[in-house]
Amino acid sequence: MARLLNTTIGILALIFPVAALADFTGTQTLTTGGITTLDLDTGVAGASGGDILWTGSGISMQGNAMELNLTANSGFSGPSGLSLLDQSLLTQFGSYSSSPIPLGALTVNNIFAVHTNDGNYAAFVATAQSGSSITLQFVTFAGAAPTRPTITAVLNNYGLIPSGFTNSGIAPGTLFIIQGYGLASATSVSSLESTTGGSVLPTTLNAASVSVTVGNVTVAPAFYYAENIQLALVLPSGTPIGQGTVTVTYNGQTSAPFYFNVVASALGFAAYYGTGSGLAHAQDLNYGYFNYGSSIPPNTTIRLIGSGLGADPDPARDTQYVTPSAADAIDALAHVYVGGIDAAIVYQGPEGYPGLDEIDITIPPAAPAGCFISVVGVTAAGVPTNFLTLPIGTGECQDSLGYTGTTIAGLIGNTTVNFGSLSLTYSPPLASSGIGTQAYTQASAEFLSESGSAFGANGGFVSAGSCIANESLTSTTTSAGTPLNAGTITVNDPNGVAAVALASQGSGIYGAQLPAGFLTEAGGTFQITAIAGTPAPAVGAFNTSVNFPTPLLNWTNQAADATVVRSQGVTVTWSGGASGTYVFISGASSSGPASSSFICFAPVAAGTFTVPAYVLATLPASTSGSLEIVNQTAPQTFTATGLNYAYATGEVGYNNNATYQ
User: Fold this and answer.
1) 562 vs 248: CA distance, rounded Å
2) DSSP secondary-structure letter at 200?
């Protein structure tokens, strides 16, 4: 076991997730007989409650929520109009009404403002509508204080996996967070509580207290910090297992009970950026950090931290620092997989600080090298933790996708990162792929800007030999970045005879279906150009190419993979595919607002890949999921004024409408 953390708790401040005070946005489809309600204060959709109810013949207001037709009253229209709104504007408009919104008023691009049940202001625009469903893009401005504390989520501080998944829940002894509104003082922000020098975490902080009840037992978690929209606490190790309720009391008022599950074990690994995904918080045994510029050699023993292994053998550690011994180990994980290879677990148990766990592993000698090698813990029952990544190799990491440690560090270090991607996609003419008897070909591009820290926190990167999974609530999907205008983009066929212009689809996305005969099984080299218009776009002119090599890949067991038994994993096999290319295997399913997806990455030369059962365990059972494989060329980087990083690829894609059992 490694020597434990130094005598300061400052390291924890770097890996607590920070609740955003900014507005949040999302997109949600409401369907008659399915998900019918949307809580605009929380983004949670369901079958009851919330602020708005889809009836099939319109939208009704729920509770005390009220609406105002902004398109009819103020001329705002479409997603672009939605982006112009702020809380100040919404408070100045005319009288809000509790009357239902008739179907005839819910035409595409019509915007409605809502004064929510918790006193916030929100707005939504209809982006699609049929007789049985409506899709809404919405934004909520969380500037108004609710009349009493409101809980919207209870999450592991590190894993951040929402309720509704098999690997969610809070174990006794876990460092967890409560999110919501009005949870503590909005003007007095508490600093991180220390447990050094015999100090004990308090059960009341910033005028807030928390009560958790499971069965007939009620406990009072101790605080690390208390803010208006987020609390961080440690669930006492003596808390029983079962469905529990939690309430927050602040300023003499108590929230409604919020239901959550107390489970024996549900570890969340700490991510370097505190987001529950992406780069792992990994150290050597001398507390030196590993990162993209300093990757981890195989056979190295590393120190991972997190929370949720289970009840601490010494309950005193729930509120104060107590040095653990080897006898305090909590052997909740049966495996820790690094790039799909089982790593030796040296120690797993308390780290010393309340709620903090330490997991020491030795990187397998055969672990694949790359910048984004997956790491995930799995219990004996096959339940996974959250998925993170590690840079494996010597010195700066080197990745088959073209990234290097220097490239990544440079992008993360920028105040903003402007990036672009171009792709040409060929979907073979197979009826089983859902595209009928004609090949489907398209060109697409995306140009976005985001902060360097947001780029670093992105959990969507994966290296060859690895799989990662993402679990979220579909109602709270947020924008990936700020769109960039790239002017006029044109793709030319290999003979230079025909050219197709990509149409802007908004949000920095461009696309076009290619005409028959433009992109065929013969492949070829396709020139892609962008011409700056007037006024000059954010992205300057460029000229690059995509080499579409042959032979094209063939998914040889596509029909058999239409039904996936999650507990058995799923094996994908293929033939063809040009030498030096890669294969991405991805899948997704959802149940209610809970949605999960995974992506795995393999070299084409492997000819097969098995998605492990512990990856599929993150997906809800569904009869309307998807399973897709994409053969991708190595990214071809290109440069343009206004972009920090850009690349182009050629792809052959197959898609199954899959059932996950």
Assistant:
1) 46
2) -
